[in-house]
Design goal:
Elements: H1 3-25, H2 27-40, H3 47-60
């Protein structure tokens, strides 16, 4: 494995970790919401309002757990 191959592998792993953290944290949902607003031509709500609505939606649909 050459130095370039190692560097590429590290960069690929870093991108994977970044993707995972954005999905886990909800950051990707915010970006998708902004894209949809731009596509449909309506102004987005604030990030705070977006998160509040997301939290309300999650609370209105409780998920049962085994533990």
């Amino acid at each position: 494995m050459t130095g370039g191959d190692v560097r590429e592998a590290v960069l690929r792993a870093g991108r994977g970790v970044r993707w995972y953290l954005r999905e886990w944290s909800g950051e990707a949902r915010w970006d998708e919401y902004l894209r949809q607003c731009a596509t449909h031509g309506h102004p987005p709500v604030s990030r705070r309002e977006f998160e509040r609505r997301r939290a309300d939606a999650l609370e209105s649909r409780p998920v049962s757990r085994c533990c």
